[in-house]
Amino acid sequence: MSKEIQFNNKKYQCPVSWADVTLRMQMEVSTIANEQQYIKTLGILAGYTSIPVEELKQAKIQDLKRVMQHLDFISEPIPSEPVMAFSFNGHDYIIPPNILEQEFQDYVAIQTAIAEHGDNQWMVTPYILAVMCKRDNGEETLDEYDIIARAEEFKDLPITIANGIAGFFLSNTQVYKSILMLSSPEVLTEIASGKTKELQDSLSQLRKQRGGNLLIRLWIMISRRYIKSSNRKLEKYFNLLQSKPSKKN
């Protein structure tokens, strides 16, 4: 449970553990910290307590220290134990244990979210959750709900749940990236070509659904661009690797 604190004669709610922190609060911390080039601590104080940044900037150091003392739990890392099922707002959700077995449209939606939000883990997390977490014992599909609305709802998830789910997804991504990094250029080329062919085959199947709905046509357009972009980047990367002189012992 959060507790009430006072700052400049005003009352604010302050979390006392990671369980009190929501994904929305963590996103706010990240946003403010990125905006404050020299004083990243303001992001922590403002994001977790909702105290306006300008008031924090003008406060005395002793007052800031008192607020920070209420946030001593942040000295510990955010819990990241994998979460495979949870209940929220009256619904039960499960996360597919194997990302590779999810529907193609899930893959495209996640890739699109990552492309839009870049490397900011917290800004992309609600969209990853909206795609990965399924109702109806995991049988729910993206055709049955609005991703943006679901992502907005998931912003109020406890960070302990959100990070556990996102951590599971990112750990799988990191495993794949690690394999790529440890491979030779020849192996990299073969793996990348295989993945591109899989995506192209999936697109071919979608094109057979003549007419199709607007969402399918959108996925086809996005995926075509993704394939072209990936191929250009891979070609540039492989050429760079092969052009580098080998280091002498």
Roughly how much helix do the residues carry, as a percent range? Answer: 55-70%
Strand order of the largest sheet: 1-2
Mean pLDDT over the residues: 75
Helix/strand structural class = mainly alpha
Characterization of this structure:
This protein is mainly alpha-helical and 249 residues long. The chain contains ten helices and four strands, in the order E-E-H-H-H-H-E-E-H-H-H-H-H-H. The strands form two sheets. Strands 1-2 form a two-stranded antiparallel sheet. Helix 1 (23-35) packs antiparallel against helix 2 (41-49). The radius of gyration is 22 Å and the shape is elongated.
Give a nutshell description of this structure.
This protein has helices at 23-35, 41-49, 53-57, 61-70, 104-117, 121-132, 147-154, 159-182, 185-207, 214-243, and strands at residues 3-7, 10-14, 85-88, 91-94. The protein folds into 3 domains: 3-75, no CATH class; 79-182, no CATH class; 184-249.
Q: Keyphrases for this structure?
A:
mainly alpha, 3 domains, two-stranded antiparallel sheet, 10 helices, 4 strands, elongated
Question: What's the structural blueprint in terms of helices and strands?
Answer:
Layout: E1 3-7, E2 10-14, H1 23-35, H2 41-49, H3 53-57, H4 61-70, E3 85-88, E4 91-94, H5 104-117, H6 121-132, H7 147-154, H8 159-182, H9 185-207, H10 214-243
Antiparallel strand pairs: 1-2, 3-4
Helix pairs in contact: 1-2, 1-6, 5-6, 5-10, 6-7, 6-8, 9-10
